[in-house]
Amino acid sequence: MKITDVETIILRLPVVELIGDGTQDVAIVKIHTDEGIVGIGEGHTSPYVIESIINAPASHVASRGLKELLIGQNPLDIGVLWRRMFASSSVYGRRGAVIHAISAIDLALWDILGKATGLSVSQLLGGTEIQEVDAYASILMPPSPHEAQRQAEALAEQGFRAIKFGWGHLGAGVAKDLAYVKAIREAVGCDIAIMIDIGTGVSLDYATRLARALEDHDIYFLEEPLPPDDLAAYARLTSATQVPIATGEKETTLSGFEQLITRGRVDIIQPDLARAGGLTELRRIAVLAQLHGVRLVPHCWSTDILVAATVQFVATLPDHPYVEFCVNDSPLRREVAREPITASNGRIRIPTGPGLGVALNEETVARYRYH
Ligand code: MG
Fold first, then answer.
1. 299 is annotated as an active-site residue
2. How many A from CA of 281 to the centre of ligand 1?
3. pTM summary value
4. 167-191, pLDDT tens digit by residue?
5. Are 281 and 304 contacting, i.e. CB atoms less than 8 angstroms apart?
6. CA of 138 to the centre of ligand 1 (A)
7. What end-to-end distance do the CA atoms of the chain give, in Å?
8. What's the 84 CA to ligand 1 centre distance in angstroms?
């Protein structure tokens, strides 16, 4: 089998707001082969940037666009192609957007491997003993504790046993953040896990006071309270509080997570399959985390392509961590797959079809296609 084309499709809502919601546009990658099998993947990043990285002509031997490296190659040689893409973009890559682009391609290559063999990605990764994974509902923090209570109650009524509020109106003061948490806990009682995601970094002093104040409220984790590169500050924070500290949605590659774990000393890492290096790199990051006694709970806030990949991956991990399930009503969140992935009683069935187990809804693609 040979790769014949790498197509980047950008979808974008008519109005994009400057809020912490990454479901307003998306880059989908389709990899075409001479046997008619088409793999799909996505990069969760600036779609316009990774489109350039994929389509760029070569500047020199270690500064090449990714598409020209893939045309004519065997798509089943996923590890070979991953290393070649990384090495051949190493002047301008190694982190950030190039790894996001490699992630999109990697997911599409695993999808092709599954379709070529008739196996799901979870089977290809070693199989799983479960049919469903636990989801946590993930939502932006609304403008008032009362509204947060109302949303938490509605999500609990839908059957979610874990709920995360993030970004939005968090980070405006320790007392305000604490008032939100108290209100949410009061609304849902003691049987539901609550996660809090600050998202935009606050100071170490703020984060430490908040984390200590949250110790009495049974928080499952406090996410991204500090800027992503402040590893010494993360180490000081984790040593100062009992609340598990989670971060990593902006981190990429095995070596990035090695730094986060060994220098940042965080309790939970949150690699995103559409950013950190795809399934190929996530497998290695999962082993690293396991060896260090660190939990891996993936970041997942995008289309059902990413949700499917995350569900397939999580199902094969020994502890089957939560899958983040964004409950936004954005059409790019809900309508990109022909059969949308849903959570029922807080659980998601693992897609059983070959590869990632999702097909594109071409009507949605046509409606929101940017160019
Ligand atoms: Mg987050």
1. yes
2. 20
3. 0.97
4. 999 999 999 999 999 999 999 999 9
5. no
6. 9
7. 29
8. 30
